[in-house]
Design brief:
8-stranded mixed β-sheet; alpha+beta; globular; 2,3-Dihydroxybiphenyl 1,2-Dioxygenase, domain 1; single chain
């Protein structure tokens, strides 16, 4: 992958802050009918499938001062990380494991910020 070919074009996940995870899950799942995927409480996260893009409800973001992070899907996170670094993107850390499912799927991410300090990420999944 060269610096000329990488384009972040697929939104993998968007996160929004919520103050009460249970109330938010009930609203998104039961009232407006989103497809519920999973919940982790603690730490205070729930996920919904929006036709291949995930919505993450984040009950811990408010305390951390997050806005609504965007997570961009990449097929090769290491190559995308290197290319974006070459373009001057400053990452907060190298790509790292976020979660490993019981089915053997690993979620990897690397976080960076835009000029206004909004948090963004590149993300991929690896099958063990």
């Amino acid at each position: 992958m060269t610096t000329d070919t990488l384009k972040l074009a697929k939104l993998h996940q968007v996160a929004i802050s919520v103050t009460d995870l249970g109330r938010a899950v009930e609203f998104y799942r039961d009232r407006i009918g989103l497809d519920f995927m999973m919940q982790f409480d603690p730490p205070g996260l729930a996920f919904f499938d929006l036709g291949g893009t995930r919505l993450m409800l984040d009950a811990i973001a408010e305390a951390a001062g997050h806005a609504s992070p965007l997570y961009f899907w990449v097929d090769d996170i290491d190559a995308a990380y290197a290319t974006l670094q070459q373009r001057g993107v400053a990452f907060e850390a190298e790509p790292h494991l976020i979660n490993r499912s019981d089915e053997g799927v690993e979620e990897w991410m690397a976080f960076f910020r835009d000029p206004d300090r909004n948090i963004l990420a590149i993300a991929t999944q690896k099958q063990l």
